[in-house]
Specification:
InterPro entries: HotDog_dom_sf (IPR029069), MaoC-like_dom (IPR002539), MCH/BMMD (IPR052342). This is MaoC-like domain-containing protein. It comes from marine metagenome. The protein has a single domain, classed as Thiol Ester Dehydrase, Chain A (Roll), CATH 3.10.129. The chain has 154 residues and is an alpha+beta fold. It is elongated. It is built from four helices and five strands, in the order E-H-H-H-H-E-E-E-E.
């Protein structure tokens, strides 16, 4: 196994908080993402979106999740011994995200435990909250990640 000289399972403690971002939501990206993956008019058509309950164009929730993932990879996962994830729990889109919004991620470690079936890895459950520039929580979820343990590197 390739050595990893980054954060390991043991480096995560319940209650730790990590702040990431910001990342700007660009109108062109909102439209392009939605045209390809979530082609609802309030994501793709700025004029028609004015008539929606949102009063304008909004990002797809999946686009918002992708932007959050970008911040998580750059500021959390790429500098760790992460070896994947079995999934995300309780994904919630709480507020619309508009072009021009600045999004920040706050990750709070909720639980850490050693895997019973694969003791060379640990399991970290976190609360991920995405806030806009008005400090409104626009999305939240509880991802579960696998991290190698320090003694599993060799």
């Amino acid at each position: 196994m390739k050595p990893v000289n980054q954060r390991f399972f043991e480096d995560y403690e319940e209650g730790q908080v990590l702040q990431l971002g910001p990342i700007k939501v660009e109108q062109e990206e909102v439209i392009e993402f939605a045209r390809r993956y979530d082609p609802q008019f309030f994501h793709t058509d700025p004029e028609r979106a004015q008539e929606s309950i949102y009063g304008g164009l909004i990002a797809s929730g999946w686009h918002t999740a992708s932007l959050a993932m970008r911040l998580l990879v750059e500021g959390y996962l790429s500098s760790s011994s992460s070896i994947g994830s079995p999934g995300i729990n309780q994904l919630r889109w709480l507020q619309p995200v508009f072009p021009g919004d600045l999004l920040m991620v706050r990750l709070t470690v909720l639980e850490t435990r050693i895997s019973h079936s694969s003791p060379e890895r640990g399991i970290v459950t976190s609360l991920v909250e995405i806030f806009n520039q008005k400090n409104l929580c626009v999305m939240s979820c509880k991802p579960v990640n696998f991290f190698l343990r320090k003694d599993a590197e060799s």
